[in-house]
Protein 1
Amino acid sequence: MKRVGRYGLIGFIRNGFVSLAAILIMTITLFTAATLVISGAALNSVLKQLTDNVDVTVYFTTDATDDQIAQLQTSLQALPEVASVALTTRDQALAAFQQRHQNDQLTMQALQELGDNPLGASLEIRAKQTSQYETIAQYLQTQQSNGSDIGAAIDSVNFYQNKTAIDRLTGIISTSRTLGLGIALVLGLASLLIAFNTIRLAIYTARDEIGVMNLVGASHWYVRGPFVIAGILYGVISGLLVLLLLYPITLYLGPGSETFFGTFNVFTYFVSSFPLLFLIIMATGIALGSLSSYLAVRRYLHS
Amino acid sequence: MIYFDKVTKIYQDGAPPAVEDITLQIEPGEFVSIVGHSGAGKTTLLKMLFAEVLPTEGTVFFGEREVPRLSTSELLKLRRNIGTIFQDFRLLPTKNVFENIAFALEVAGRSDEDIQADVPHVLDLVGLADKLWSFPHELSGGEQQRVAIARAIVNQPDVLIADEPTGNLDPINAHDIVEILKKINDLGTTVLLTTHNKSVVDSIGRRVVTMDQGRVVRDDKQGKYVL
């Protein structure tokens, strides 16, 4: 094992140009892989933000009692589709309204002339998944139509006005995820094939050498081993290069990505997910390098 | 010890046989020159001995072992017991002289101590003790062939196969190589030499097997190059 390792290292060093070519191609491959991982995270972040902004709001009448409001809130929280229910009281609604329109003199004047708080309390309901809003809306509709005490306190539900947008969003999210996965698979596969063929070419240049090793009676492991070791070295060095490159690139793109994606900062993600990224990139590099070498040598081995 | 039993080799259907119905026995310690024009089948015959090529018909025996039927591990052991040298030397270009020879010992599982002792000794035998750390591209043709011989004999094989070893060498180097081969044979190793160099064969003065169009046409115990 020690000898095989030594030969792998020596071969890696002495075949300088071939090693360099393999490392360059693998760096591009692993960089593509890392980009796909980070892009996936960015996409998920955007989708999550969109999802978080979707909700169903129940507006109460101005004479709804605290009991009625509390009852509806409790019954909604008990629904399996519901992730959270947030109450905005009449006073909170009024304060928020005044905050929003503080520079609008006309509106503020009209509010003053009304005297009383014209706004009712409301409940903002978040579902666990966007596809579940329909069920929640139907529950509320049932409450309204069955003449219950709770139903009488409901003034309006804003779901059906937003239904089209919510349905469309659900569709976009689903398509985005599928498309993202599809693109990742195609790009990933293309990158893997290119890296594999590059290593095959590198081993092709050593075919005469492998022939000699066969002739002197070297076992398959003795022939293959140094090339697998070299493949691992290609993977490790390429992986380290990619991680080194990603640092300044994500640092540079960080502020821009936050502006573009909302709350997703690509540099923050890189730093916080470094252990995971390190594992993915190094494991992919080592697996790709070693497996490619193992398979590529096979055609030159014969008994 | 080596017995070719009615071996025939046809590389492609419809093509003439490269080797046809050859029966040939070689005793331990013999020096056999196999001569013939290019394409006579000399190299194919030798390749069948270490199973680089399998016979289409017939079989090959090495001692008691039937070569085409050997398992992978048995075949590797056989190859370690057969030293081979070729016209194009076939040294490993990215390894220096020491490493090229040491490689043959390493695949045979020898220790580092044995390797450190044996490699300089065998290089001394072929007159290249001062070239231990040179790379093949830094050596002349004659020197490369001597390194190849050193690698071939370092495991003290029973048989040394030399396939046109002087093909790329000038007459002086060719003579030196032949002298080394004779010395190796005198030490007890069976030597099979293929060549179409008349002066090489005549200078050896030992058994000559003549091949033509895949067949053995002459087999002289103390032969000359006759075609």
Note: The two ends of chain A are 22 Å apart (CA to CA).
Protein 2
Amino acid sequence: MGEGSTRFKRSLLEFWRTFRANKLGLLGAFLVMTTVIAAILAPALTPYQPTDIMRDAAGHPLTFASPAVHGPLGTDDAGRDVWTELIYGARISLTVGFLAGFIAMVVGSLFGITAGYYGGGIDNALMRTTDVLLVIPDLPLILVLVATLRQMQLHVSPLVVLIFVIGLLYWTSTARLIRSQVLTIKERQFVARARAIGAGDNYIIRKHILPQIMPLIVANTVLIISTAILVESGLAFLGLGDPTQPSWGTILNFAFDRNAITNGAWWFYLPPGLAIVWVSLGCVLLGNVLEEMLNPRLTGHHLEGGEKMVAVQKQDREHERASA
Amino acid sequence: MSEPLLSIRRLTAEFTLQQRGAPDRVARALEDVSFDMLPGQTVGLVGESGCGKTTTLLAAMRLLPANGRITSGEVRYKGKDLLTLSEREMREYRWKEMSIVFQGAMNALNPVMKVGDQIAEAITLHHLMDRQQVEARVIELLELVGIPRSRRDQYPHQYSGGMRQRAMIAMALACKPSLLFADEPTTALDVMIQAQVLELLRHIQQTLGLAIVLVTHDLGVVAEVCDSVVVMYGGKVAECGTADQIYNHAQHPYTQRLLASFPDLERPGMQLASIPGTPPRLTELPSGCRFSPRCDVKLDLCMEVDPPAVKLEEGHVAACHLRRGKEARSA
Amino acid sequence: MSRRDYLLRKLGFSLMTVVIVLVINFVLFRILPGDPVRAVIGRNVRISPEVQQALRVQFGLDKPVFPDQFLDTVGQWARGNLGISWSLRRPVKDILLAKLVNTVILIGLGQIFAIVLGVVLGLLAGWKRKSAVDVSALTFSLIAWAVPTFWLGIILLAAGSSWLGLPTGGIVSPANVSKPLYAVLPDLGRHLILPTLTLTILYLGEYMLIMRSSILEVLGEDYILTAKAKGMSQWQVLMRHGLKNAMLPIVTLIALNLGFTVSGAIYIETVFSYDGLGKLFQDALTKQDYPLLQGAFLLLAVSVILANMSADVLYTYLDPRVKAN
């Protein structure tokens, strides 16, 4: 059992204790969990299907009906129930977000570990790559890539294209983070000891380094997922999603293109965006708290304090004078 | 007997340490710290890391960080208790009456501002003279500490470590203070440069009649420059007296061990004695005398009751139960 | 390393990135369907196979793709020949240049407001930690990060047009479309309010956060304590020593943000039907007008790279430490 993995188990317990005490982290976890549960339990939360058309007493489609007329969130331009679209849309948005985030994590970790562990030329080359990726503006690149891929007629769902493109472009922050962690761990004693007894690189990475950086990878992935969800919603809004499997971004694309604004149908364009904020915020809070717990910071600076420093002192004096 | 320039009486201060997921801890950084100094005198403030030497200086100038508080005591400068002043009033004392030179000086100077400009700022801040005079004074100060005027417009990273320290001293003298606090001015420097800086301090002490409080853990430095010595341990004053009293008739066991652990050039073959154990954590202080866990001549009383400071002879004070018998009878 | 070496290194990096962009631009658009000949002469023009072959030779399409065709194409680009737009039937270059100004105005205004407000608020937040300003600034930044760009635009558009009577889209009212911009400034101004506001709100958060953490870091440095020891008031220390040092990361941030600003522009211009490069890009995408898309991508990418490099150069002049090792 590598020393790396025992440390891991010990820190896991400590971690849980600290996490419970942090309210923002709990809020984040709550936001994420509720969305995931809602997505999984979708059929239980609504009697309709996303494609069902609501009809009025005369059988005509109930288009742009406000929540007062048809609860809880009214209907869209074709008469479909917005609440249903929202819940089922969660499945798409979350799936794309998680999968893209997962790919970004894998690629980023691979790059980061390789660069950090082997150093030298490999490190340089990999870091230059991340620098280049960071400089090129992301949206134009994604749009152009997606356009190209779709034209290649690969017969895959547009969602798959999105997942891969997002995953393959947003791994840079993970790579940098992992790399600097690996650099620190590499210098620690147990790595030198393992090498001394003849352990190979793969073994060292697997048994000693990986367990140590796992928590950080997890924390970072949560943050990446929030970015992935945001990016996906934007791309879907621009029309690059799958209209047959609408994510929240696609719903907003429908809303915008089909004049929800001019029709004042706030129940159509407000909820999907709120849902995106809900989940993104949750992931960010969760991810930030997780990362913070692994990278504690200092408090206080020189311009704080001042008069307060001798507050007690002064009060004592006044007491003395008063009783004299 | 002239009036003391600086009189610190029973100064007590604490730091509040915040921790995630745990209640705040309080570090009792200073407790009943007292000592006097006369104008033009040089006092050495010695002790191990974390004993409260720097905290004493910062407290005296009221520069403690946000989580620090002075809870009781007096800091009388020329008779006036600085702790009763408002922040605005205190600012009038800073740099004009007393200034401070920090350890390392690496980051103590603003890296994106020219050294000359930083010195000039100290002067113009207190409206001491008009513009042309300021520039002349800056050059004068630089030359006083041995920095050529050609370096006036350079940045701190272009100076060597020793030069930076000297620049800081020059800046500290800008407003002609009566008291200079020097926090480990030689610690981060190599021996040759150390000697230069010490020589400089001696020089300004003599020519400017400046009173200096020199904080250091190096007894050798203290022996060279200081008139009197204050030995601190665990936030309290263990012993204080004139240089002669401390070096030749030290009474507190800690002082004695400290002296014994320093190599003496005149006895090169002597075995160095180190003090076993480590200084106490200021958040978890032992009951009784703070040095008792490491003291080899302790009594049972030492572990229960914190010894008060007792006057042994004129100017010589020690806080140790063992020496109480030698208390000087007050006349 | 000396400043000169540092700058040379940055220049080299930027050039390399530009080359990569050129390659991407070239390769991607070769994969896209549509005969390259068509890309030049337009989609709907009928030509016989013989003429087509002659054109192929003329355009050098019978030569090997790398390096010959690649270098030829790059040469064309360098001379400003970006092809002809399929949907608009005009040279791509002319179209791009016409729309460039509009986007620069939008992005410029949004960034300036965001920077000014962000710096001021970040400064206050960092200086007065844990005060009401700090907490609300942090909360705002957090939420702003999680809000999708286009959605904020939609909400502001809906609210602004129905409650404040602001225009629902476009860069100027239909009546003023053919007039030069400088002649219809008030109209332009009214149309700019909502999109600029959206951009400002979105970018404000980041500048505020960076300024806040930058100021916190700076205020923890020893030279701040020295300044206070000299007898400066809190405000003086902040302004004379804190500010300059804390502003340095902002310069870097502005450079980093340029890429994201372009992305934001695409969303905002789409939502507000603002006639700039962003909307152009989106339209070209929808209409599958590849010459236009390719040209726009090239312009956007190269501009961002150059702007990044300029920011790096500027930074070396601001931070004297860059000269030394």
Note: Chain B touches chain C at residues 61, 63, 88, 91-96, 99-100, 102, 104, 106-113, 121-122, 125-126, 155, 157-158, 168 (CB under 8 Å).
